[in-house]
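Re: Re: C-alpha cell formats

Sure, here are both.
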Amino acid sequence: MSENEIIKGLMCPGCGGSVEIKEGNNVLKCPYCETSLMVMGDEGVLQYHVKSNIDREKAKVEAQRWFGKFDKDRKLKAEAQFTDVFLIHIPFWRAMGKVCGWVFGNIIHRETHSDGKGNTRTTTRREPVERMVMEDYLWNKAACDVSEFGVEEVDSSGISGHLAPFDFYNVEKQGMIFEPTHSRTDAAKASEEWMLQKARDSVRVDEVLFQKLHSLDKKLSIVYYPLWVLRYKFRERNYQVVIDGMSNKLLYGRAPGSTLYRVSMFVGSLMVGNLILTASAKAFNKDNVQNAMKAIASGDINKLTQFPGVR
C-alpha cells in the first residue's frame, strides 16, 4: 500500500490559512497560528472526492472503441446512437489498515512416479512452515446500490494521489451525487474480513494448523468517485455502458453480440472437445481396450485397474 495521501484544500477557521492533512488523520495544527484543529465528517466519517479528468468526448471515444470489438455486432459501431451521457459520483467505502500476526502449517508437495509398465503412483510430503504477516492493505466497496451500473469496487490507483475534501455544492456542479446507503458497521466488518483473508492467502500455506492475525490502525472513510454513464440506442433497443472517470476504462457495458463470434466459439469448443477425445483414445491400444472390456464384463475390478488410463 502506498503512503497516506496528503489532502489539500482545507482552511484554518482561526486565521484562514491553508492547511494540509494526511489521509486517515483527523487532528492537526495550523502552521500559521498554531491552533489545534480536529477535522470531522458526517457522523464522524471523513469524506473525500476524486475529480474526473476525462471529459464527455473522451468517454464517447472509449465507448465507440469497445463497440468495434470482434465479439460485438459488426454494425454496432456505425449505427449506435448515444441518447444520454452524464457524470455521476458514486460513494465508496475506503478502508486502510495493517494486518500483523503468524500462520503455522504445512506446504504440501505431491510427486507422481511411473514405472516402465505405465503404472503411476503419487506420493505426498508435508513441509512444516511458519509465516509472519505484516502488511498494509487498501479496501474499497460501493456504499450504495450500484446494480444499475455494475461497479462494486474501483481500482485504488485511480484514487491515490487525487483525493480532495468533499464539498457537496462544488461536486454537484460537476455531476450527479449518490448518497451512501450501506452502513458504516457493515463496511468496517467487511473490510476487516477482507484484509484478514488477503493476509492468509499471501503466506501461501496449503494446510493451516494455527493462525493468529490482527487488523491494526484501521481507518474508514468515504470517497466519491466519478463514473461516466453513456446510454445508447441500437436497432430500437436501449443499452448502457459505464466508464471510469479517471482511467477512461470501460467498467461495465451491455451490447448485442456478434453472430459470427458465437458460431466461432461454438465450433472452437467442438474442435477442442474432439481433440481431447482423440488424445484419450490414443492412450489405449487395441489389446488393452479388449482386455478392459473383458474385465468389465467379468466384474474383475482389480484386473481392470491394471490397464493404463484406468484408475
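Second one below.
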Amino acid sequence: MKKLIHFVCGSIFWLWNCTFLLLAYGVILPQVGFAFSRDAWAGVEIPASLVASLLGLLIVPTVCTLVGWFRLRKQPVSLIRLFYGVEAPLVGICLLRLFLIREMTPASSQILGTALFCIGAFAVELLCGFAARKRTLAWLHW
C-alpha cells in the first residue's frame, strides 16, 4: 500500500508539472506574455503587479519542478506536499490576480499578502525542516 501511495504522489506531481510547463511555455507565454511585451513596447502602461503575476505563473512551476527533481525526487510524500502546499496555491494566486482581480484594493492586498506569507512559511518548513530542530531557524519561534 505504501508503494502505491508513493507512486500516486509522484505521478500527480510529475504529470501536473509536465503538463503545466507545456501549457505555460507553449500557450500562456506566447498568447499573454508576448501580448504584454507588445503592449509595453507600444507605450501602453501595464501594472507591475500584472507582470509579476504572469512571471509568477511561469516561474513557480519551473522552480517547483527543479526543487522536486534535485531535492525531493526520492521523497514522493514531500513532492505532494510541495505541490499542494506551495505550487498549487501560488499558481492559483497568480491566476486569480492575472484574470480576476483587476485592481488591488487594500483588502485584497492584505488577503493575498497573508496567503503568500503562509505559503512561504510552509515552504521553509518543507525544505528546511521543523524550525525547533534547526538551530539556524530557531530564532523564528517566539
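Residues 86 and 138 are 22 Å apart (CA to CA). The chain has a mean pLDDT of 86.
- S.
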